[in-house]
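ok, trying the design again with the full structure, not the truncated one.
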């Protein structure tokens, strides 16, 4: 896991940071697992499926499936073997080139996936943290109590807001 979740969540309360850290570790993807699945099973798109990219994984899977169908149709249909072998070779070479490119990109994809996961967890945790709201409500309550005391003093013979608004302007 290439994302420093603890440093990113440093501003959250300790208990919430610990709980979100557990969720992150449970859902984060491992770079080694993604790389090895790309290396050994990349032609089938397993590494994309591991990262939750099902559409890309299925796109990878189409090439070997088409190659297998071409072999089966060629053998069962009695078609000439040279064109079938050429088609299968082209498909498999294209799939291997695609896999080779993916091998250099898989670590970055895992980092981006884990960073997005950490950001979403921390963002949700920050929104769920209501200490700022509690502090604001406490300040508002104390301000309201102060205003009530001032209103009581005005009722005891002091000047009220009604007196000020009823006073003629310009004298």
């Amino acid at each position: 896991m290439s994302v420093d979740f603890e440093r990113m969540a440093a501003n959250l309360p300790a208990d919430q940071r610990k709980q979100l850290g557990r969720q992150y570790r449970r859902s984060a993807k491992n770079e080694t697992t993604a790389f090895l699945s790309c290396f050994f099973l990349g032609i089938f798109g397993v590494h994309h499926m591991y990262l939750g990219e099902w559409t890309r994984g299925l796109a990878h899977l189409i090439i070997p499936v088409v190659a297998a169908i071409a072999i089966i149709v060629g053998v069962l249909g009695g078609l000439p073997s040279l064109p079938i072998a050429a088609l299968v070779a082209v498909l498999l070479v294209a799939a291997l080139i695609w896999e080779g490119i993916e091998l250099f990109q898989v670590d970055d994809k895992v980092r981006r996936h884990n960073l997005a996961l950490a950001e979403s967890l921390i963002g949700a945790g920050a929104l769920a943290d209501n200490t700022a709201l509690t502090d604001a409500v406490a300040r508002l309550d104390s301000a309201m109590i102060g205003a009530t005391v001032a209103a009581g003093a005005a009722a005891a013979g002091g000047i009220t807001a009604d007196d000020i608004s009823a006073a003629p302007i310009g004298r």
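Keeping the full-length input from now on. The helical segments are 5-8, 14-27, 31-41, 46-50, 54-77, 81-128, 131-155, 161-166.
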